[in-house]
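Hi U.,

Before I forget, here's the chain from the pilot set. I'm dumping it here mostly so it's searchable later in email.
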Amino acid sequence: MLLRKIGLKFLIPFFFVIFGFQNCGQFNGFELQSGTVFLGSLSPSDSFLVNGGVEYTKSKTLVLTVPPELGAEVQVSVGETCGDTIPWISNSGQVPLDLGSVSDGPHPISLRARKAGILSPCYLSHVILDTLPPSVTLKPGLPAQISSASVSVDFTVMDASDKITSVQCQMDQSPWSECQSPYQVESIAMGSHAIRIKAVDAAGNVSQPASYAFSYGTPTSTPTPTPTPTPTPSNPAPGTFPEIIKIMPLGDSLTVGNSTGGYRNYLYGHLKGAGYKFDFVGDYQRGTDTLPDKDHQGVGGYKINDVAANMEVYIDKHKPDIVLLGAGGNDISANYQLDTAPLRLLTLARNIQKRSPKTYVIVQTRPPRSDSKNALVIKFNAEVMKIVNAETLVNPKIFLQDNYPLMTQADVSSDQVHPSDAGYKKISYGWFTALKKILPAK
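Structure:
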């Protein structure tokens, strides 16, 4: 069998990325091979599955270049199907692929070619759009004054795509260099110093550097300025809100609730009874007639990463003033990366607040379970409480609501995971208590 191989290159600003495509139908005269332009024969035993890798990009505009050697036209689009309405591009043309309307995450790219009346099947690949930078968090408790000429800094790096390509550290004004946790420096001179740590993900997004300032030896005589008072984590300052306050219940099945709407059913009554004007917002609805406003942004089975995947879309669409964030239960059920789960939850809260600076994000601890996973819930909650309370000191718009103590295991439903209706009612009091800390007094 005599076949043609087509090499196609996608150009991203400042990057040169090669995509592989998979033959998705009966082969009819063309095959795509990643990375090269090659004309020649292909034996019938060769596979039609062509290097079906995925690539990351932070740019929402890709450019397809058709090499002149090809002598054919191509049709390319964002989506899983090739269509007759999509324009054909000549063998020396270029066409932009606009990802401006899609959210971060994987997206299919489809392509087919034609030459001398021969039409190839539709080939499929994927691009992963990632526009959010990673974050670097230093382990709390680093001393401002060290007593020896060495220092060790533990840190954690998080990224929405879970694809970190580089972590770099810098001591004072020395060049940045690749590093890992813990970052250790020896033979430190006496005086004041600073360590900075940053991360780069596969799409080329660069984090804000995390900084640690310290001194070694006799402290300087410069008087220490009086620190600015910081808000107590459990008592954030009241906010300024519009006449109708948009509240987004966000998370997993605990947000979806039972048939009546779970905690949202009771929280609606608390807020209405207190005289607040508000609107629950989200893409989904659940609840009985006792809940007039059924909107929420919860999806059963979602892990923290799933909740975070399309965050920009639903935040930009609904523009919430307050987010009630509850996630992590499915990470616990699946034993999914539990050592990073609390920080991934905090990173999601940070990214929401960064995306919408006006928005308050209230992060809940998980309520009790009555199965063997409850010990993991307790461990998860302890870390969430520690890092969220620390975050509140620097960003008062992110704060904690500890809902675990409000329930007992007697308030867990027969599935041993979700609250009973009585449990949801108790959780609603927790959310209401948290909301009253920032809402205008009534």
